[in-house]
Amino acid sequence: NWRDGTLSFDESRRRIAEASQWLAGGVSSNFRLGISPTPLVLDHGDGAYLFDADGNRLIDYYLGMGPMILGHTPQDVRTAVEAQLAKGILFGGQSAIEAEAARLVCEMVPCAERIRFNSSGSEAVQTALRLARAATGRRVVVKFEGHYHGWFDNILWSTTPPADATGPVPGSRGQILDNGIDIAVLPWNDLAVLRERLAQGDVAMVIMEAAMCNQGAIHPLPGYLEGVREACTKTGTILVFDEVITGFRVSPGGIQKRLGVTPDLATFAKAIANGFPVAAIAGRADLMELMANGVMHGGTYNGQAVAMAATVATLRRLQDPATFAALETRGTRLMQGIQAAFDRAGIVATVTGFPEIFHVAIGLTEPARNWAELRRMDRPRYIAFTTALLRHGVRALERGAWFLSTEHDDAVIDATLDAVGRAVQEI
Ligand code: PMP
């Protein structure tokens, strides 16, 4: 019944309600709240597919919110993890597998002269904040409207600001508002505004998604990243690319390799370990070595051996040119197919991003250049689209972009485009 668009999710709905007796809101992350028609309860995965509590087989474009670039059940990662499990889980000390994971990151990522591991992207961003302030002796952090860098008080500002916002907008109740003093929120893709702010001389670091992918997908304008790089160097400001989404996803060396602009520091997570809780900060040796000289960075689970085994196995696959060749070809076909489906239906939409992560902005005739433009997309209609798609057996984020894995082969892409063609008729 996926063809008719009549898949039902009643068992998921029932189990979410039941779990809500114990689990706050029925979920463990606010990004899983309020999904239409219901947050799903998943049972197991297989390659490009997830199977839910209602027994539906869904083609998955969430991919765990990005990490599962090799799909849900990659044999080589499983083999490496099982071998490590038999040898030990967590040592509270260093291991050869952790050093190998670090070596691979330094080999693959242009800015990475040194790296440190931790467990989540939010934590990696905190390390960047501390290093930049220690290195410069300055307080202010420049971030951009619509960009997301984790859920901690000092950086959860203006991730979805309203059009009439006049200053930094906190992202949560209970957030310490004093932190807003040290945050300057600017529109992205506007070099003049950034240059002017940096000229004040009090900015420790500029942090950005070098292509914004956390909601929608926005490319930097030609010359923008190069201009940012130059302005930061000139003013002694640390430039940080938050590559939690783009790292090891839009190329083996992340967005910095794909677009050819090297930051001072970069944060990674998600695709680095295909679903295991691994994140990293990488960058210039002189900055990173501050952690051996007074800058505190900790974490019981940092470099956990099983997660490191997953990291090494994942990165080896991503180093194989065949991996990205396949992602590029199939992702391009999928993007073009989706754009064509909307064009055929006479619905205004633009598909932007990269073959490995892209977005469909319904209602926009041209690619958005910043958050202010992206927020004009037709959100309710997009949610109607992803909801219709789900009933046709395709799971795509209603607030975010489409993630692709190596397991999305031509047959999966064909089935997806079939479902997309049906869903667009229903919205
Ligand atoms: N930065 C970016 C760009 C992200 O997309 C995310 C998570 N979606 C984070 C940081 C935070 O990472 P985590 O959820 O692992 O804390």
TrEMBL record:
GO terms for molecular function: pyridoxal phosphate binding; transaminase activity. Its cofactor is pyridoxal 5'-phosphate. SUPFAM superfamilies: PLP-dependent transferases. Keywords: Aminotransferase, Pyridoxal phosphate, Transferase. Pfam families: Aminotran_3. The keyword tRNA-binding does not apply. PANTHER family: GLUTAMATE-1-SEMIALDEHYDE 2,1-AMINOMUTASE (PTHR43713), GLUTAMATE-1-SEMIALDEHYDE 2,1-AMINOMUTASE 1, CHLOROPLASTIC-RELATED (PTHR43713:SF3). Belongs to the class-III pyridoxal-phosphate-dependent aminotransferase family. This is Aspartate aminotransferase family protein. The lineage of its organism: Bacteria, Pseudomonadati, Pseudomonadota, Alphaproteobacteria, Acetobacterales.
